[in-house]
Every structure is written in structure tokens, then in C-alpha cells.
Amino acid sequence: MAPFNILVNNAGNNIPEHFCDVRKKLRQGIQLNVKSAFFVAQAVAQGMVESDIKGSIIHISSQMGIVGGKKRTVYCASKHAMEGFSKSMALDLAENGIRVNTVCPTFVETELTRPFMAEKEFKDYVLSRIPLGHVGQTEDVADAVLFLASDMSKMVTGSTIKVDGGWTAI
């Protein structure tokens, strides 16, 4: 794989399901949200190390990597795993000048979230948990990623930027 300077590792999916009903979706969630992210990051990091690139690896995690959520057992488990391996990666790769961080957004208005937000009860619940009173926009996440990809964050590694409107502060 050709060396990269920056990786924005943004694969992931959430299929809400009650803990007692989880079967096949456990494997699917871990495969995509943990294993895929892990091995993509590993391949990119190896290229950075071999090419002596002092790069930035940015994992898109979730506020659910910090807290728990109803019907989100698999998603929370996978994003908590991402938070953990990101911190360990940061320690392993620091000696090579490679920074590793995560961005943890709240619900962001996208094609994937529109069906959930169409349900009034769910939308009201989400908005009640966000002190700023609105869901995120893709630009909110992009701004955090831009910061972590830039030299403005040259002393930032092993960190999490929460773009959650205050959800995790409650």
C-alpha cells in the first residue's frame, strides 16, 4: 500500500437491537466497526513507519464509545473498543511521530440517521440529551478532523475530540 500522510478511518454502522436479541449482528458490528478499522489503520501505520512519515491517523468513533445507549450494545461495544485500540496505537506509534486520535460525534444529520430522526419519540429523546439543542452537521465533524489532520494538533495524540453538543457532559 502506498504511504499515506493522513488516514481518516470512517467505516462503521449501527443496527439498533435489544441486548437479549443480539445474535448475527454482533459479528457484523465487530467485523466492520472494530476489525476493519483496526486492520486498515495497521496497514496505513506500517506504510507511515516504513516511509518515515510523521502522519496522523484519525478514527471516527462515536459518543457511544464514551457512554452507553439503549438498543446499542453492539455499537457501543465496538466504539469502546475503537477508543481503546486508538489510545494503544498512539503509544506504540508516538516514537515514529505518528499521531492517533478519535473524533466522537453525536447524531449527525446524514442519510443514515434520517430514518431514526423521522421517529418523533426518538428525535425528542436525542434532542433532550444534547444541551446545545440540535443534532450535528457533517461540517462539525469535518472541522474536528481538519484540526487533527493539521499541524495545529502537532502535540495531540491518544486523545478524543467529542463533537456531541454536550451529550457526554450530562
Q: How would you briefly describe this protein structure?
A:
By secondary structure, the protein is of the alpha/beta class.
Structure notes:
This protein is an alpha/beta fold and 170 residues long. It has one domain (6-107, 136-163): NAD(P)-binding Rossmann-like Domain (Rossmann fold, 3-Layer(aba) Sandwich), CATH 3.40.50. The protein has helices at residues 24-50, 73-93, 114-117, 120-129, 138-149, and strands at residues 6-9, 56-60, 99-105, 160-163. Strands 1-2-3-4 form a four-stranded parallel sheet, with helices on both faces. The termini are far apart. The relative contact order is 0.16.
Write the layout of secondary structure elements.
Elements: E1 6-9, H1 24-50, E2 56-60, H2 73-93, E3 99-105, H3 114-117, H4 120-129, H5 138-149, E4 160-163
Parallel strand pairs: 1-2, 2-3, 3-4
Structure annotation, total helices: 5
Number of strands: 4
> What CATH architecture do you see?
3-Layer(aba) Sandwich
Quaternary structure type: single chain
Instruction: Output the CATH class name.
Output: Alpha Beta
SSE ordering: EHEHEHHHE
Query: Biggest β-sheet, characterized?
Result: 4 strands, parallel
CATH-assigned homologous superfamily: NAD(P)-binding Rossmann-like Domain
**What is the end-to-end distance?**
43 Å
Keyphrases for this structure?
170 residues; alpha/beta; Rossmann fold; 4-stranded parallel β-sheet; globular
